[in-house]
Write a structure and sequence with these properties.
The chain is of the alpha/beta class. Helices cover about 30% and strands about 20% of the residues.
């Protein structure tokens, strides 16, 4: 059985040349993007050469598009819109069953944000979508990009037709590749350079080309619930035959993120007119500063709430689990979400849903 995989290139270290004078740069081709073939992508030619037997046995074919080429630290809303447009252009082929799966190459810095966004927009897609990246440029002997890609291909070949979902494939030791759920992954941590799942339960891993579930019950439930929850929500608002990718228009940079720290003075923030909502981060116990001394009123999150109410914009807190330390009942929380996912939900929610009740119910959907 032939497995046709759509590979979407967006840049990142996985698409970089070896650094010159200590500076890396995205690999540039003399060919226009629309004229590129498999032979023009080192990631693909290397895979075919080093996995020739599997490639032929599984009758794998690759089709490529390259909507953008950027270092992921330079990802912007405009570049996200280019990726979304490319997915929309391919939607007819995807719905027609042309592809057994999709692989999206991406840089590591903002991977969790893009994976969360695409995980929301493609929540109802019936084929697996896997994000891959690389810790080093692909000519480096310690680069994990080739393994991440190869195991993403193995995952799609073995699971296409069995499960759908959006995932991230990442190896830390070049032996085992972790499979994260895209809407559950948190950004890689500085110094240790590791990703982490929100719940601490990864979807599974691939070793020697074979996929294993880490915790069968929990992992499967996380996967199934996300798809079922968005289906139920769309049915409840009488839009069950629609999907978010088709509904979303070009995103705007209209969600502001604020993260707490000791001494945060909310009066320093100027909320511009285009801001639709503020997403406020929390400490690990789902807390923010609510109790201040005399003369420190502007360090209290209640001050920010007043600013947002004055400007008639939403104020939301995430990640949020519970808070037994203070009465925060007047604050809106986005439960069961990483900050990356909460940001994606707000971007999409304020873009698609004009009714206040629909927006608030959408933000409750557990992906």
């Amino acid at each position: 059985m032939r497995t046709n995989i759509l590979v979407i290139f967006t840049g990142g270290t996985i698409g970089c040349t070896p650094p010159k004078d200590g500076i890396k740069s995205v690999e540039i081709s003399d060919k226009p993007v629309h004229q590129k073939t498999i032979e023009d992508y080192f990631l693909l030619t290397h895979y075919i050469q080093t996995n020739e037997q599997f490639y032929r046995e599984k009758s794998i074919t690759f089709e490529t598009i390259e909507p953008l080429a950027t270092d992921s630290s330079s990802m912007t809303i405009g570049k996200w819109n280019a990726l979304i447009s490319a997915l929309k252009e391919e939607s007819e082929n995807i719905e027609a069953g042309k592809y057994g799966g999709i692989i999206i190459t991406h840089g590591t810095d903002t991977l969790a944000y893009t994976a969360s966004l695409i995980g929301v927009l493609l929540a109802r897609l019936a084929i697996p979508v896997v994000f891959v990246s690389s810790n080093e440029h692909l000519r480096s002997p310690v680069a994990n990009g080739h393994k991440n890609f190869a195991d993403a291909v193995s995952f799609i070949c073995s699971q296409s037709g069995k499960i759908s979902g959006k995932y991230v494939a990442y190896s830390y030791d070049l032996k085992k590749t972790i499979i994260y759920i895209a809407t559950q992954i948190k950004s890689s941590q500085t110094f240790i350079h590791r990703y982490e799942s929100r719940t601490g339960v990864d979807f599974g891993y691939i070793q020697a080309g074979i996929f294993y579930l880490d915790d069968i019950c929990k992992a499967k439930q996380l996967h199934v619930d996300g798809n079922e929850n968005i289906k139920k929500f769309m049915k409840d608002i009488n839009r069950e035959n629609e999907n978010l990718l088709d509904l979303v228009s070009p995103l705007e940079s209209n969600i502001m993120i604020i993260n707490p720290y000791v001494g945060l003075d909310y009066s320093c923030f100027k909320i511009s007119p285009n801001i639709k909502a503020v997403l406020h981060g929390t400490y690990h116990s789902s807390t923010v500063c609510l109790n201040t001394g005399i003369g420190e009123e502007k360090n209290n999150a209640q001050y920010l709430r007043g600013l947002c109410e004055e400007k008639k914009i939403g104020l939301y807190f995430a990640p949020y689990e519970s808070n037994e330390y203070a009465d925060d009942s007047k604050f809106k929380k986005i439960y069961n979400s990483t900050q990356e996912l909460a940001y994606a939900k707000l971007l999409v929610g304020y873009n698609v849903f004009s009714k206040g009740t629909e927006l608030e119910e959408f933000l409750k959907v557990d992906f």
